[in-house]
Input
Amino acid sequence: MGLRAMSRLEIGMVMEPSPGYTAKLAAEIEAMGFDALVCPDTQCLSPDPWGQLSLAAAQTKRLFLGTGVTNPCTRDSSVTAGALATLQLESGGRARCGIGRGDSSAAHIGQRNATTLELRTYIEQLQAYLRGEVVMRAKTSSRMRWIQPGELPTVPIDLACTGPATIRMAADVADRVSFAVGSAPERIVWALETLNARLAE
Output
């Protein structure tokens, strides 16, 4: 895997999905020159993002579309993989998966968020499903039977990180990293140093 080098600066927007309006707003966001639109996947605080993002894909041509962020707590990895693969096909390869521990999604249903290990396992399962590979789920061989190996363009996994363990794990399994450490320069420097140290290892 490994983090992907960005060839240019991208400016995106986070927007809660709005049934009846998401597609129209996505077209306007693209027309304004933005590069990406991400929608939160937090079921008690905003509408479901996946169908809305597919509708947005039909009304845009270059805008990257994805979650900001989804989580391992409320959807099985196979379910998220199916949603991502559908969006990737509907958008012509413009899907992205922002993912984190699931703080707000879990809190509003009385559950705890994912541990670093649980998040890593989930991401690795997600990536394998999207590659069309077999994923062992307990003693069951599981695979997205409608995806052939190598058929689907890679969906970048963007891991939202707050602490050192998650940052180090992101260096191992993610394609992109989003730091949720605040805007203080010293915090950003710390996060980058933590990431770069793990990449060097």
Remarks:
- DSSP finds seven helices and eight strands in the chain.
- The beta strands are 12-14, 36-39, 64-70, 95-99, 135-137, 140-142, 157-161, 176-179.
- Helices lie at 22-31, 49-58, 77-90, 103-107, 116-130, 164-173, 185-200.
- The mean pLDDT is 96.
